[in-house]
Amino acid sequence: MTETTLTALLGWSALINYAVLLLWFALFSFNRDFIYALHTRWFNLEQAGFDTIHYAAMAGYKLLVLVFNLVPWLVLTLLV
């Protein structure tokens, strides 16, 4: 795999992952009650804990995308 191909792959991967993150945020923001009702069928969760779990998961996902996609893409873009 060439550097140019890897750079393109990481760039597209970062865009797709951030699109997933935005979709997750939008669905959670506009359909929170439905998602909460769906999850409480399986797990005994309070609303505050549910919000905390989703917020922490979104933050972790965002951090992983940043570390494994965006930073390597930026480094390769600056080097190539």
Polypeptide structure, described:
- The chain is an all-alpha fold.
- It is built from three helices and no strands.
- The chain has one domain (3-79).
- It is 88% helix and 0% strand.
- The radius of gyration is 17 Å and the shape is elongated.
- The model has no long low-confidence stretch (mean pLDDT 96).
- One of its GO terms (molecular function) is kinase activity.
- The chain crosses the membrane at residues 6-31, 52-75.
- This is Signal transduction histidine kinase.
Element-by-element helix/strand order? HHH
Strand percentage lies at under 5%
> What profile does the largest beta sheet have?
none
Assembly classification: single chain
Can you give the helix content as a percent range?
Answer: over 70%
- Rg on CA atoms, Å: 17 Å
Number of discrete helical segments: 3
The 3D shape can be described as elongated
The count of DSSP E runs of length 2 or more, i.e. the number of strands, is 0
Number of domains: 1
Which structural class do you get from the secondary structure elements? mainly alpha
Low-confidence stretches: none
Give the rounded overall mean pLDDT.
96
Distance between the termini: 14 Å
Protein traits:
kinase activity; mainly alpha; 80 residues; elongated; kinase; DUF6868
Chain-wise SSE layout:
Layout: H1 3-30, H2 32-40, H3 47-79
Helix pairs in contact: 1-3
Protein name: Signal transduction histidine kinase
Transmembrane segments: 6-31, 52-75
Domain DUF6868: 1-79
